[in-house]
């Protein structure tokens, strides 16, 4: 089972590259040039990892994705923590994927505004013995839920003046 960890870790690195780093690079186009040793003043750090463990004869994979962004010119900082556990069943055809996405946004220009949210997800994901398909199915489910929370956040910020 630990061979699945290595393949998932490789796929997760690719996923973070595609969905976090490239997105941050595109976002810098919208930020004016400032000099704080980062492109256009936007500083962004990303990391990910997959850990495997066995508890009471049940095999688990733990996925974690972290993203920290700051743009000091407009006094904005944010963190994104996405953590997921894949619990294997006896039949090895499905895993129970449970995860939590924690988001913290801070604006501290004229007032200290903090927005924090946490959302939990759970889904039974069909997998098989093919390692590539296994990791792709798990990351597809993670991507689905991350997109879901991004859609909700965008909707919230678009309508925030309506709510206040």
UniProtKB/TrEMBL annotation:
GO terms for biological process: actin cytoskeleton organization; barbed-end actin filament capping. Keywords: Actin capping, Actin-binding. The keyword Disulfide bond does not apply. InterPro entries: CapZ_alpha, CapZ_alpha/beta, CapZ_alpha/beta_2. It comes from the Eukaryota. GO terms for molecular function: actin filament binding. GO terms for cellular component: cortical cytoskeleton; F-actin capping protein complex. The keyword Metal-binding does not apply. F-actin-capping proteins bind in a Ca(2+)-independent manner to the fast growing ends of actin filaments (barbed end) thereby blocking the exchange of subunits at these ends. Unlike other capping proteins (such as gelsolin and severin), these proteins do not sever actin filaments. Belongs to the F-actin-capping protein alpha subunit family. Heterodimer of an alpha and a beta subunit. This is F-actin-capping protein subunit alpha. It comes from Plasmodium falciparum NF135/5.C10.
